[in-house]
UniProtKB/TrEMBL annotation:
Pfam families given in the database record: Thioredoxin
Coiled coil: none
InterPro entries to which the protein is assigned, alphabetical: Thioredoxin-like_sf, Thioredoxin_domain
Listed GO CC annotations: centrosome; cytoplasm; midbody; nucleus
Span of domain Thioredoxin: 80-163
Record function comment: Significantly diminishes the chaperonin TCP1 complex ATPase activity, thus negatively impacts protein folding, including that of actin or tubulin.
Name the UniProt record assigns to this protein: Thioredoxin domain-containing protein 9
Highest taxon in the source lineage: Eukaryota
Organism: Panurus biarmicus (Bearded tit)
Keyword Hydrolase attached: no
This protein's UniProt keywords: Cytoplasm, Cytoskeleton, Nucleus, Phosphoprotein
PANTHER family: THIOREDOXIN DOMAIN-CONTAINING PROTEIN 9
Main location: cytoplasm
Compartments, as annotated in UniProt: Cytoplasm, Cytoskeleton, Microtubule organizing center, Centrosome; Midbody; Nucleus
Length: 227
């Protein structure tokens, strides 16, 4: 027991030392920044202020442009024709191919509604798979729900069913956010190497595709109806 206590003490000291070192680095960085500001003359300070104001103005203009193109809310589009128009307008698009009778589509809706408000740099859409047979065939959409992740007008990736989301109906919004971050279709600030569900099962960042199932001879498969 004494040996165990000693190793705990050593570990604690190491951790304390690491925390102190980190704090020292942050403090030195702040001191350097303050010193830099102190040494600036009025012209330099004014120039810095102007640059910051311009960056802020540009950021606001970008935000307004996104909102004018329908970003910031999760919307349903009525037809395949609308899909092509919407995708042409925006750099990053997430489109949920859904079906009314598939319960898991409602779960996906709930999370996408939250993410659309948070990530206004990306357009979030939904399209009824039964009203878009051409697109479903072209994009090879067989499992419902499927998210098509589109960058610069090209479909780069798919989230098929819930396989990449921890294989559970109870996945969190953070898990879906991480998965979209992996596809670089949103600005993700977390660590891509650490999926939020890795405590359940270690997935890393390699994904598996959902197995196909035939449901009542439909052209779609559903990963929820008959589970």
């Amino acid at each position: 027991k004494m040996a165990a206590d000693t190793s705990v003490d050593i570990l604690q000291k190491v951790l304390e030392n690491e925390i102190l070192q980190s704090a020292k680095v942050v403090e030195e960085h702040l001191d350097a920044e303050i010193q830099k500001l102190d040494q600036m003359d009025e012209d330099e300070l004014e120039h810095l202020k102007q640059r910051r104001l311009e960056a802020l103005k540009k950021s606001q203009q970008q935000k307004q442009e996104w909102l004018s193109k329908g970003h910031g809310e999760y919307r349903e589009i009525p037809s395949e024709r609308d899909f092509f128009q919407e995708v042409k307008e925006s750099k990053n698009v997430v489109c949920h191919f859904y079906r009314d009778t598939t319960f898991r589509c409602q779960i996906m809706d709930k999370h996408l509604t939250v993410l659309a408000k948070k990530h206004i740099e990306t357009k979030f859409l939904k399209l009824n798979a039964e009203k878009s047979p051409f697109l479903c065939e072209r994009l090879r959409i067989k499992v419902i729900p499927t998210l098509a992740l589109i960058k610069d007008g090209k479909t780069q990736d798919y989230v098929v069913g819930f396989t990449d989301l921890g294989n559970t109906d109870d996945f969190t919004t953070e898990t879906l956010e991480w998965r979209l971050g992996c596809a670089d279709v949103i600005n993700y600030s977390g660590n891509l190497m650490e999926p939020p569900f890795q405590s359940q099962k270690k997935y890393g960042t390699s994904f598996t595709k959902l197995d196909k199932k035939t449901i009542r001879g439909k052209i779609y498969d559903s990963d929820s109806d008959d589970d």
